[in-house]
Amino acid sequence: MKNILLFIITFTFILVSCGNNTNPHKEDKENAMKGLRIISLVPSITKEIEQLGLIDQVVGATSFCDISKKNPKLIVGSAISINEEKILLLKPDIVFSSTLTKPESEEILRKNGIKIVSMNKLSSFDDICTHYIALGKELDKEQTATEFVTKSRKKLDSIISTIPKTEERPRIFFQLGAKPLVTVLSGTFMNDFIIFANADNIYSDISNIIVSRESVVLRNPSHIIISSMGPICGQEKIIWNDYPDIDAVRNNNIFKVESVSTPTVAAFVKHFEIIKNELYGK
Question: Which of 16, 32, 88, 202 matches a 20 to 30 Å C-alpha distance to 74?
């Protein structure tokens, strides 16, 4: 009887122990990630880190990051110029930089044992998706990032499927700036807004982002999209009304959207749906 009782006690202890330590390595890794100190020198990456649920672990960011507006103490510089001394004092485990970050600044941080992960130029929506999954992998959130990308791609495909088949494709002038007048070029993720909308970029053949109003008139877009530039945005619509020979002006096809320069999966899908609705209706 004693032997049977001892066996039951021992067996129960083993079950409880196994239940409490199903994957000790996973727990150790999760605890390590929770203690990770992150600095982001890229506003779009800061947004993505927040989406991955890790915003509380960001100890430093740029003056352009939304998180810094709420907590200015987080500011360690801009995307171009950073305060290396302040970053070192914050003792980050990882710093996310971009091609705008000065190489000498990155080298100083590396020499002090800080891991630097630089974001390359994102030239398409596919690039944005690939980058987000890579970021998720870096922060042990690969599954979360992958699932979000899959969901976002499905939504994007669903929006595209509602675009009517028209004989004449919209001819788009996508304006990003006013002084100088700046447009969207081929080979950029913003050009995918136009491609996915079954439209044509009137400046698909140039490599200089600066154009003239006279050139826009000659190329005669059927639609003008103005990316938000604050009060200037409204003024630009008024200015274009002084060019009645442009089809977009004649047919009142000038509209503005929020700033589309943020290369995140969520922002791209959101802006594309707005653009599609403006071009074709809901």
Answer: 32
Under the banding of pLDDT at 50, 70 and 90, the label for residue 121 is confident
Q: Does the domain spanning 155-280 belong to CATH 3.40.640.10?
A: no
Query: Residue for token digits 């801009």?
Result: 78
Give 35-119's CATH code, choosing from 3.40.50.170, 3.40.50.300, 3.40.50.1980, 3.40.190.170: 3.40.50.1980
Residue 141 in tokens? 């959130």
Cβ contact 241:215 at 8 Å: no
Ramachandran angles phi, psi of 263, nearest 5°: -85, 70
pLDDT tens-digit readout, 174-197: 999 888 999 999 999 999 999 999
Whether 56 contacts 110, CB under 8 Å? no
Nearest Cα neighbor of 217 from 253, 184, 190, 242 is 242
**Residue 9 or residue 203, greater confidence:** 203
Q: Boundaries of CATH 3.40.50.1980 in the chain?
A: 35-119, 155-280
Tens of pLDDT, residues 49-91:
999 999 999 999 999 999 998 999 999 998 789 999 999 999 9
* Residue 175 · residue 233 · CB < 8 Å: no
CB neighbour class for 24 (10 Å; exposed up to 12, middle 13-18, buried from 19): exposed
* Residue 168 φ/ψ, nearest 5 degrees: -110, 115
Q: Taking the CB of residue 117, how many other CB atoms lie within 10 A of it?
A: 14
